[in-house]
Amino acid sequence: MNPQHRNLGPSEAAAHLGVSTKALRLYEQRGMISPGRSAAGWRLYSPEDLDRITEILSLRRLGLSLMQVARALDGDPHALDSGLAAHEDQLRLQLSQTETALMKLRRLRDDLRQGISPSASALQSALGQDSNPTVGFELPWPWGGEWFELRDIRALNFITGPLGSGKTRFAQRLAAELPGGVFVRLDRVITDIACDEDAAFAARVHNTLCWLEEEGATITDALRALVMALEADASAILVIDMVEEGLCDATQRALIARLRVRTRQKRRLFLMTRSSAILDLDLVGPEEAVIICPANHSPPFRVDIHPGGHGYEAAATCLATPEVRARTSSIIAINGRN
Fold first, then answer.
1. What is the DSSP letter of 118?
2. What is the CATH architecture of 135-335?
3. CB 247 within 8 A of CB 255
């Protein structure tokens, strides 16, 4: 029977829609859907529920916060307009990139007509093969100089590992070797730009903070400093030290939701984290990757994101809820942060 014509349990509904069961529960908690119940008390999603969730997912893909989604579902045209405007900007960017690629191809064809063969680098550039950077370097101490190489860099990359694994030194070296890489320290100072001196920058910071607040974040100095770092330079590849630093559970969840929206614009980010609110292994998508620095100082590697996959269980044991992280912060300080 077609799934659209019968009631589905949570796992079936999530698989049919391509989302997690956690997302379904979140939409229910926010009052956007109200699934029925079986005689045994299990949630059942009707065809109408599935249509409603599909609409929610479409609005989320436009970059709307959960509050904006709720308003749009209630018929507020202003809530939807901000998402459509952002999508229009993204399409304009894609159009500009396509026009640039066409110009490169036309130049190559003109050269060929004159008997000039393109260089390998010019051909790669024309085909867009230089848009995804690769990086390779010798690992710093506490490793023994082993070679590390990262290809097919995803839009959103998480770096995790247990205490003493060397992940901070790894992240610093990675930032230094990445084309356009910038390491964002815990103080979040990477720019001298002041909001009162750059109106466009101030507007970006303000809009992002408003989005996060609507998503449930608490606006603090720590969050504001992080947002300023994120909005300062859209072309840089940021490697952010312990992204959850100073942020509560709800703020962390709002932040990662925002970053997932941002990375659809193909800006690449590396987030150091040991928080399960930032890195929920059940929610890692196809444009995301997890790199783990093992406890035994063997070289870092990319985790296979499925139960039983290479490094999956090791990564899971590195993560803790924000509450647990807060309780153990003094222990981390005594043992040294890395």
1. P
2. 3-Layer(aba) Sandwich (3.40)
3. yes
